[in-house]
User: What shape does this take?
Amino acid sequence: MNYKYSYLVRIQYLGFRLHGWQKQPNVKTVHFILDKTLKFVFKGIRYKSVGVGRTDAKVSSVDYPFQLFIDEPVENISFLRSFNKNSPADIRALSIEEISNDTFNIIQSPKIKEYHYYFSVQGKNHPYAAPFLIDFGKLDVDLMKEGASLFSGTHYFGLYCTKPSKDSVLIRTIESCEIIKNNILTASFFPEESFVLKVRGKGFLRYQIRLMMGALIELGKGNITLNDINESLVEKQSKETLANIAPGSGLHLHDVEFSP
Assistant: This one.
């Protein structure tokens, strides 16, 4: 089904009350609310929206691109004004630009994604912080920083994926992985000190980053060692997934860069 025009739209959303990106029966998802808003904005005009990828329940994004296919031209400023007026408070459109239907495909186009996982280690946080970061109690953050660096490079990530298909590519390259003090996402109700795991790569497996964060939590608790993480990144006979999946609400899609 061909459409006359194509646009790249970037949005932000708070995922705490939503069940991920993908439409599902009887629950509110980002794509469901997005299309509901677009249907109101483009009354009577045929369109289709395709996201850059899935995010899990409660995962947020400060930069989520989707491709808009539509039969009529879109005026950028009026679209942003109308979308933001009619969308719920936890979704906001940032930008829109026309792109070629023939040369750009948001799924197949090469891209780099950067994810952030925000956490603290001081005890129970203010309830208002719950949608943004998780407190894991006392952890050895310096040791976790060493562990995070082990994920950088090309490794086998079969233990950092749930229910991979027979076609899943389990050898992946992480361009960078580090834990730093958080001065990126801040609020008056955040703990005095918090941290962020920053991960950049071309593509990630299902729950990969949350499982990586889970392993780092176990490292910080003293339940596993740096050598255990090294060994988990080498392909072996065992195909069991690591058990500790960090909660979704600490994870944020921070940035998506498309290659020329």
User: Anything to note?
Assistant: The chain is about 20% helix and 30% strand.
